[in-house]
C-alpha cells in the first residue's frame, strides 16, 4: 500500500504541476487482470464457461503478441467462496497483486459490493456479466464500466418479441426465482407489459425459492389456471427443473413459455423444450448468431471452445468475450491516442469513455454513464433434428440503443412511460433461423 | 465435568507463559496495518467474525450449540444499514450501538422462548428463527434489497468524514479494542457468580434447580451476552464490507461460527479469535490457490483437528507451552 | 377454494411429503440409534441422485430399456450405503463416540464439506436431468390437471412401504430388536452380548442407503446439481426435530404436515411457502417442547 501511496502522491503532484502533459506508464512485463466468477455453487453454470472462454481468448491474444507486445495474465476469484473472501481477495489482487484492471462480477449483489470498492481502490473495473440496472441509475462511477446490457433492455426485448409474435394473448403467469433478479426482472417486465398492452391479466405470481428442487405444486396450479403465457426469468438448474417438469406434465403444450435466459439451458434441456416457446439470451448471444456465424473469427472460437469444453457456447461466454474485447480495444486506443508505449490509468479511463468494441456478437458501445449498449437477440424454440436440442427460429435482433433506459432516467419510470406505439418504433432485424 | 476443571487449571497456568503470548499476539495484530497492510482487511474480517464466534463460545460453555446465531450477526448489520439509509452521515459510534441494540432486542425476544429448550431442540429452534429472518430479508426485497442486500455506506467518525483508508484504520483499531475489551469482559463474566451458574447448565442442571436458581434465567443471561457479542461482530463486519446481504444469516454462516469455535478450542475466549484468524486465512488462501477444492481443504483441516486435537488450537498451544511440565493436555 | 383445488393441493403435498419422509427417515434412524445428527446425510442424498442418473444414463446408452432405471435406483442407494456410509462410520464416526455431540456434529459437517467438493470433482458443475423413469410410468389426469404417475402414485407408495417396513423390522425381527435394545441402553445391551459396534455400523449403512434412495428417487423429477444436498439437510433436520428425536411415525406425520402446508401455501399465499417448515417447527415445539412424538426423558442429549 505504501508503494501505492507513493505512486499516487507522485502522480498527483505531477498532475498538478503539468496538467497538460501525457504520462506514459512503463510497459509492464505482463498486463495482470483479475476476474471474478462463480466457480462453485449453482451459478457456476455461468462462471465455469466464462472462465474457460476467458482462458481461450487470453491465450489467443497472447499468441498474437499480446497488447502492444504485453501478454495478458488473468487470475480468477471464486464468487462462490462468499463475500468476505471475494472482497479481501479482490483488494489483495489490486493492492499487492498488481492487477491493473478487474472484471467483476456475475452476481448483481457482488457488483453492488465491488463497484464502490473499485472506486475506493481506484482500479478500472469492467462489470462483465451482472444484470442489475440499478448500478448506474443510482450512482455515478469513474472507474466502473459495464461491457454489456442490463436487465431493462433484456426484459424489454422479451416483451416486444412476445407482443410482436403473439399479439393477442390475454393472460400471463410468472414463475421466477425468489431473489433480486427474479423480482427486479418481473418488475420491469410487468411494467413494460402494462404500458404497452394494458388489457393483459396477470393470473398468478410465483416466486419459489432459489434452488427449488420441485415445482410440482406451481405446475398443478398453472394447469388449473391455464394462462396463455408463462414467463420465467429463471436460469441454471432451476430453469432446467421447471421446464422439464412442465414439459413432462404437458404444460408446454397448453401455454406459451417466455424464457429470457433459456439460451443458456438449450443444450441441457434437450428434447424437453418443445417448439414454439420464446427464448432469450441476455444480449445477442447465440452459438448460431445469424449475423456472425459465417465470420472466420466466430467460427474459429466456437470450434476452440467446443473442443475445450465439449459444450456449445452460452451467453456468459459472449459476455466474457465482450469484456476481453473492451479491455484490448481500450488499451490499444489509449496507446494510439496518446502515442505511448503503455497508457497511464487516466489515459485508459479516457479511452474507455464512449469506447466501441466487438466481442462475439454485434459491436457494443459504452455510454456516457458507462452503461454498455448491446443488441438483444430473441427467438422461438424449434426442434429441427440438426441438434439433439432445441435451436431458434424467427430470430429478431433488436438495436440496443433504443431499448436502453436513457441516461439519467430510472428504468421502471421510463419503461412505465412507454406505450403500444413503442413496439413498432423499435428497429429490428429478422432472420428465419 | 472434567473439562471444566481442566479449563480452570488452564486458566491458572495461563498466568505465565501463555499470557505473555496473548500480549504478543495482540501487539502483533495491532502492527498489521503497518507491517503487512495487505492483510489489514482480512484481519478486520477475522476479528469481527471472532466476536461472533465468541458469542457461540459462550453458549458452548453451557453445553448448548446454536445453529442459528448468524441471526444476531445479521440483525445488527441490517440495523446499522437501515440506520445509515434513513439518516445518512450518522456517526460510526451510533451505528455500532444501534446495531448492538438490535441484536440485544432480538436476543431477548428469541431468548425468552428458546431458553426452555436444550440440546438439539435448542439448536434447531435457533436455526428456525434465523431461517425465518432470512426468508423475511428475501421476501421483503423492496425494503431489504433481497439477495443483493443493502449498502452500508461509510459513516462519519466523531463528526469527521474519512476516506476509505482512514476509515478502515479506525475500524481496524476499534475491532482490536473491542476484541480485547469484550474478550476480557467475557472471561470475567465466566468467573462471576452469574457466569458460574450459567456454566453449571452444562454439567448439572438439576443442581441449579435444587439451589433454587432458575436455569432458564441463567441461560437467558448467557444467551443475551452471546447475542451482544454476535451483534457487535455483525455490525463491525457490515461496516467493513460496506454491504449487508441475507447471506449474513444463512445457516451455513451459523454452522461456520460453531466450526470456528471448535477449531479454536471450544469454550476458550482466545480460541474464538485465534480460530477466526486461522479460518479466514485458510479459507481465503485455499480459495485462491485451490479454487475448486477449498471446501475440501477446510473440511479436511477440521477433521484433523477433531481427530487429533479435539481441544482445538488452544489445546495445541497449551500442550506446546507446558511440554516442560510433562503432561500437556490434548484436551481429553 | 373449491373441492377440486383442495384435492389438487393434497396430491402435490403428499408427493412432496413422500420424498422428504424418505430422506428424513434415514436421518432420524441414525439419530435415534447413534445420537448423531448427520449433516453428511445431505451429501449422501445428492450422491445417490448423481449415481442414479449416471448409471441410468450409462444403461440407456448401452441400449437397455428405460424401465431398468428402477432397479438402478436401488443399486445406487446400496452403493452409497456401502461405499460411503460404511467407511464413514467405521473409520471416522467410530473414533468419536466418546466425544461431545458438538464434535460429532462438526465431524459430519466436515465430511459434508469434503463430499460437496468430491461431487463437483466427479460430476462437474453442470446440472444433470434424466427423467426416463418418470416417462416409463406415464401421466394421470385429475380434474384436467396432468400429474406424473411417478410422483402421484409411486413415491407415496414407496414412502408407505418404507414406513411399514421399518416398523416391522424394528419390532419383529431379531436384528431390529437388537437395534432397539442398543438404542434404549447401550451398556446393558453390550453386557448381554450385543455387539454394539456392529449394530451402529449396520444402522448407519441403512440410514445412508435411505439417504441415497431419497436422492435416487428424486433424481427423475429434478435437476441434479452442486448444492442440492444442503437444502435437503436443513429440511430433514426440521422434520426430525419437529417429530421428536428418533420418532419414525412422527417423521412421517411431520413430513406430511410440511408437504401439505407447503402446497396449500402455494395455492393460497405463495409468498410464505418457503417459511412453512420453520413455522410448523416453531409452532409444534411451542406446544410440545420434545417434538410431536418425543418423550421428556430425551432431554439429556
UniProtKB/TrEMBL annotation, chain A:
Signal peptide coordinates: 1-24
Domain Leucine-binding protein residues, every copy: 31-375
Entry annotated with the keyword Nuclease: no
Keyword field: Amino-acid transport, Signal, Transport
InterPro entries reported for this sequence: BCAA_transport, Leu-bd, Peripla_BP_I
Top-rank lineage group of the source organism: Bacteria
Matches recorded under PANTHER family: ABC TRANSPORTER SUBSTRATE-BINDING PROTEIN, LEUCINE-SPECIFIC-BINDING PROTEIN
Family designation: Belongs to the leucine-binding protein family.
Name under which the protein is recorded: Leucine-, isoleucine-, valine-, threonine-, and alanine-binding protein
UniProtKB/TrEMBL annotation, chain B:
Transmembrane segments: 18-36, 42-60, 67-86, 92-113, 120-137, 170-191, 218-237, 257-281, 293-317
UniProt GO MF annotations: branched-chain amino acid transmembrane transporter activity
GO cellular component labels: plasma membrane
Location of the protein in the cell: Cell membrane
Keywords: Cell membrane, Membrane, Transmembrane, Transmembrane helix
UniProt keyword DNA repair present: no
Claim: Transmembrane is one of the keywords in the record: yes
Name by which UniProt lists this protein: Leucine/isoleucine/valine transporter permease subunit
Signal peptide location: none
Record-linked Pfam families: BPD_transp_2 (PF02653)
Topological type in the membrane: Multi-pass membrane protein
From TrEMBL, chain C:
Origin organism lineage: Bacteria, Pseudomonadati, Pseudomonadota, Alphaproteobacteria, Rhodobacterales
GO process terms (BP): amino acid transport
Subcellular location: Cell membrane
Family: Belongs to the binding-protein-dependent transport system permease family. LivHM subfamily.
Main location: membrane
Name recorded for this polypeptide: High-affinity branched-chain amino acid transport system permease protein LivH
Gene Ontology MF terms in the entry: transmembrane transporter activity
A cellular component annotation (GO) from this entry: plasma membrane
A Pfam family assignment: BPD_transp_2
Membrane topology classification: Multi-pass membrane protein
InterPro entries according to UniProt: ABC_transp_permease, BCAA_transport_permease
